[in-house]
Write a structure and sequence with these properties.
The structure is a homotetramer. The first copy, chain A, is an alpha+beta fold. Chain A contains 3 helices and 7 strands, in the order E-H-H-E-E-E-E-E-E-H. Chains in contact: A-B, A-C, A-D, B-C, B-D, C-D.
Chain lengths: ~140, ~140, ~140, ~140
């Protein structure tokens, strides 16, 4: 399965009056991590692959997270994201966010491959994931890639 | 168990390039809903009850959500929040966000009653929920309250 | 000139480790206030008037703000927004955010009436404000409206 | 005067239904840029220099920004931040955000050196900037630093 690791930094504006990260920010971090995994797997930026495959995005249908160790502004964190299942029109991913060696937060999410409903452009519907993309998400990244 | 319902509106800045709410915003909506439930149960604003009980907050240890129907800027939504369990030092809550009669999103979260670790003010530790607060969270709101 | 007043509440997640509002959130508050003013002046929700007038939005070209008194989570604030100038394709607005009787923050912004460039849908261009909308923005709200 | 340049990426969640950055996000980008400039000038992370100098932060008293070219998710941008004035208890900074060679956005801000009012911990007051910090902010960064 495909996997990607990135780093980011917790900022002052991400933290709340308790002086620790406002937990909602973790979902933004996870969302960016998923985008980066897709971009690397597909070999295009999101703005490009939305056009290339004429789709609307990969909205989250379901997500969960556990927060184990608080992080603070200035903390450099590392997020490892793994594809754990690729279905017909959905993908499941898992994130682990590390502060040093400790898993500070972990999340999982199920995303759907979504297009505008041609019969009703106000509505969003799911559609099968293109075979070549499913294939790339199922494979490990090429070494050094 | 205590319960509270509030309304809010999805705004332009909450929505993403797909034209629908950026799912991360739902967690902000749920967090505000939990605050409002606590404020009503305890009978004080959060800024007051943090002082009155000398605690740091009720950080989320675990959360999950399902997104069923996309909402858009301008949508008026209603969020019903229910206490579902009150433990020794943790509280579990559930949120249902309605667009009209449809449940557009639902979430659950486990929060802990947190204080600064006296031995290490950098650290956060959990502590038993004061009995009078546990009591109020376990009871239904007073009618008309 | 048109004018609108609304209230909102500063929330925990809007505040930073200094325990006061993270100033960036004021711009979100001002943006919602502008939307509400437009909606009331035009008599439609934003999602509707974007369609009705086939335009992309009213992005901010320039903005400035002064922050005078810090606000905190739980503070109920009132925002008065005034149209101060309506040009050919731009509108200038001013916001005053009150905490009690004190002006806690004030902002001004110049917005343009923007459409997609027909020759290049990647680009945004400004266009004259429709006469009936300019007219409504220049007039005071109808009493009780 | 001190100066710092950093890069960041505009993300999906930073963009609005017009498909371009929600302008409010620029202020978050500028705030992080200021933090990074201070950290580099002082030689400590923000969480450390707040403690070392026993102060509350450097809240923004006044800010303005111009948005010239819209940016989109996936855009890599470069932000150059310059100290332009160091007063007794205030600092003025300017930001230019580049998309390629174009200045896509520019901002300026006046920040104050703030401490808790000892007579009233609810209040924030300004205080003279420590001489060594004023000195560092007034000097150019050391080459290669």
């Amino acid at each position: 399965m495909f996997s990607n690791t990135r780093t980011t930094r917790i900022e002052w504006g991400d933290c709340d009056p308790a002086g620790i990260i406002y937990y909602v920010r973790y979902f933004e971090i996870f969302d960016v991590s998923t985008t980066m995994l897709f971009e690397r797997a597909i070999g295009m930026k999101k703005i490009q692959y939305l056009k290339a495959y004429n789709f609307l995005g990969h909205p989250v249908a379901e997500t969960r997270a556990k927060f184990r160790v608080p992080t603070r502004f200035g903390d450099e964190v590392r997020i490892k994201t793994d594809v754990v299942a690729v279905g017909r029109s959905s993908i499941k991913l898992e994130h682990r966010l590390f502060l040093g060696d400790a898993v500070a937060a972990e999340g999982s999410e199920t995303r759907v491959w979504a297009v505008r409903d041609p019969g009703n452009p106000e509505r969003v519907k799911s559609e099968p994931i293109p075979a070549e993309i499913a294939e790339r998400l199922r494979n490990a990244p090429v070494a050094g890639g």
